[in-house]
Amino acid sequence: MSELTGNLVVNGTFDTNVDGWGGWPTNATATHNTNYLDNGCLRANLPNNSVYDTYSLRSPDDFPIQNGSWYRMRFSLHSNDHGFVLAGLKGLSQFMGPEEVYERMIPFSDERREIEFYFQSGLSDQAVVQFVNNWTEPLYYLDNVEVHRVTVEDLDPNE
């Protein structure tokens, strides 16, 4: 595996701020926090379901993705409680619907997790990173968000 691009995510380390990161609904927050993870992180919180049941947190800038290309997504995750976040990429053409380029349900807890997964894009589009959590699992901390276009090699498990 080798990287074909630099990190496609802008401001994914949150060292000094979380500028541009945010989402919907309006009662959810994305704030800068220095108590968890590495030199600053994003604190995502959906305090209740008075507006909507889930919080869709998105990266500030979109980037190009190509149909058939492989990508690696990495990030650090921590919380004060147990829960799940749906992590992945959403194409701009998919914003008004439930579709995603790719998404994976990731558990979180009071133990730090380093997440890394690979996926193949099924469309060419501009995309953003998206994290979705439920109001019943309202709070998590996020850091070191990266997406790289990568090369992959088929391996035969019988060899």
Describe what this molecule looks like in 3D.
By secondary structure, the protein is mainly β. It has no helices and twelve strands. Strands 1, 3, 4, 7, 10 and 12 form a six-stranded antiparallel beta sheet that branches. Strands 2, 5, 6, 8, 9 and 11 form a six-stranded antiparallel beta sheet that branches. A hairpin with a 7-residue loop joins strand 3 (29-33) and strand 4 (41-45).
Task: Give a nutshell description of this structure.
With 159 residues, the chain is mainly beta. It has no helices and twelve strands. Strands 1, 3, 4, 7, 10 and 12 form a six-stranded antiparallel β-sheet that branches.
Question: Counting H and I runs of at least 4 residues, what is the number of helices?
Answer: 0
Tally of strands:
12
Helix content: under 10%
Oligomer: single chain
Please render the helix and strand layout as text:
Elements (H helix, E strand, L loop, with lengths): L1 E2 L18 E3 L4 E5 L7 E5 L8 E5 L4 E3 L4 E9 L4 E9 L10 E7 L4 E8 L4 E10 L4 E13 L8
Antiparallel strand pairs: 1-12, 2-5, 3-4, 4-12, 5-11, 6-11, 7-10, 7-12, 8-9, 8-11
Label this structure with key terms.
single chain; 159 residues; mainly beta; Jelly Rolls; six-stranded antiparallel beta sheet; 0% helix; globular
